[in-house]
Amino acid sequence: MKQAPLTLRRWRRVEYERLVDLGAFDDDEPVELIGGQLIVAEPKGSEHATGVEMAGDALRAALPAGWIVRGQNPVSLDDESAPEPDIAVVQGSHADYRDAHPARPALIIEVAESSLAFDRVEKGSLYARAGIVDYWIVNLVDRILEAYRDPGADVTAPYGWRYMSVERFTPPSSVAPIGVPATPIPVAALLPSPGRSSAFGDSLRSGPGSYPEGPQAVRIDDMTPDPAKLLEEALKLSPESRAALAASLLQSLDEEVDEDAEAAWAAEIAKRIRELDSGAVMAIPWSEARRRILDR
Fold first, then answer.
1. 24 lies in a domain?
2. Does residue 191 lie in a domain region?
3. Chain centroid, CA 193 distance in Å
4. Same domain (yes/no): 182, 49
5. Residues 140, 144, 146, 147: is their CA dihedral positive or negative?
6. Is the sign of the CA dihedral 237, 114, 53, 288 positive or negative?
7. Could you tell me if 224 and 290 lie in one domain?
8. What does DSSP say about strands 107-112 and 134-139: parallel, antiparallel, or unpaired?
């Protein structure tokens, strides 16, 4: 006797959102609604988490006022999809989305390792069908940035659409979002550097100490608990990686720091990086340099 194929129950977004409101899903196993199906999200390892934070920092530094970065929050893509991309860039303010999730981000970014094939094919087709004009994948497997653009119909794609243009970028190149008045972003600022643990990584994992300047100052100081070790590790990096390190330190500045102080701190970082190859010794600690700059 011939068996009839099983019928899958496809969920509508309004049904899914109701289940979320009722607390039907376990926080330890996050899910996304993709094309009417509930998909368990990729486990977030330390490198994935680092990539997400780096992408968010790089975009916030590049975007002008009137644009915000949302991290791992739902997008109301269509009636049967509510994905939670790692990064979504939207216009407006956070308060604008108090009552409803955004539907058409100007840029979506997924940081991919074990989910690379799914993000390329399934999510790529879904985002193309929804008219997302700019979709990036931070590819942690091949350590490149993939930019997907120019969505178009394709009956062979999972959701009937795909991106007709795919560009791949590696450090030291930069890439700018389309449709967003942002400055170009160095690819190195989006990719966690492999093997950059040792003393530098140990210092990051050592935990915060006691800082009299308050929580806003902790982020930079916590990254440089031992300036000598930081410079020693930076000397082992390529020039591109050293530039990315300087950029990551700059991006960790509090957003309320004025532009002049921010530029001065950037210059101080650049000076220290340039001193590496000449073997120059720091005259004052980084924390003191920062205090002098911000107190001017």
1. no
2. no
3. 14
4. yes
5. positive
6. negative
7. yes
8. parallel
Instruction: Kindly state whether residues 235 and 290 are assigned to the same domain.
Output: yes
- What global pTM score does this model have? 0.64
* Counted domains in the chain: 2
Query: How do strand 174-175 and strand 161-169 relate by DSSP bridges?
Result: unpaired
- Candidates 249, 261, 130; CA nearest to 241 is 249
Do 189 and 54 form a contact (C-beta atoms < 8 A)? yes
CATH number, position 160: 3.90.1570.10
Question: Cα 206 vs. chain centroid, distance in angstroms?
Answer: 23
**pLDDT (tens digit, 9 = 90+) per residue, 49-73?**
999 999 999 999 999 999 999 999 9
Same domain, 174 and 230: no
Is residue 209 located within the same domain as residue 79?
A: no
Question: Which of 136, 160, 186 is at the close of a domain?
Answer: 186
- Dist CA 69 CA 168 (whole Å): 23
Looking at 137, 164, 186, the residue that finishes a domain is: 186
Classify residue 5: in a domain, yes or no. Answer: no
pLDDT tens figures, 93-142: 999 999 889 999 999 999 998 889 999 999 999 999 999 999 999 999 99
Q: Please give, one letter per residue, the 3-state secondary structure of the chain.
A: CCCCCCCCCCCCHHHHHHHHHCCCCCCCCCEEEECCEEEECCCCCHHHHHHHHHHHHHHHHHCCCCEEEECCCCCCCECCEECCCCEEEEECCHHHHCCCCCCCCCEEEEEECCCHHHHHHHHHHHHHHCCCCEEEEEECCCCEEEEEEEEEECCCCCCCEEEEEEEEECCCCEECCCCCCCCCEEHHHCCCCCCCCHHHHHHHHCCCCCCCCCHHHHHHHHHCCCHHHHHHHHHCCCHHHHHHHHHHHHHCCCCCCCHHHHHHHHHHHHHHHHHHHHCCCCCCCHHHHHHHHHCC
Residue 230: inside a domain: yes
Domain ranges, residue 249: 198-294
CA distance 33 to 289: 49
